[in-house]
Amino acid sequence: MHPPLTLHRHPMCAEIIEEFQKCHLDHPIGKFFGDCTELKIKLDRCFRQEKAVKRKANFQQSKKLKERLESLRKETAEAEAKF
């Protein structure tokens, strides 16, 4: 099972998605018997790579946010300590 095959949500895999959809149109019955399996495997690999890239970017972004929050907490703690 794969996520919805929308090109705008998966720009890294757009070419493979188009090939896969074309294969399904060209082989309406053959798709049930493995005619598009190789493309499906490529698509799954591409989705995994895309997810890894997104996961890494999200982790970096969350790391920056945590650092920013920590510095804000220190600043507020220091300001409260002065009073």
Automatic annotation (TrEMBL):
This is COX assembly mitochondrial protein. Residues 55-82 form a coiled coil. One of its GO terms (cellular component) is mitochondrion. InterPro entries: Cyt_c_biogenesis_Cmc1-like. It is found in: Mitochondrion. It comes from Citrus clementina (Clementine). Keywords: Coiled coil, Disulfide bond, Mitochondrion. Belongs to the CMC family.
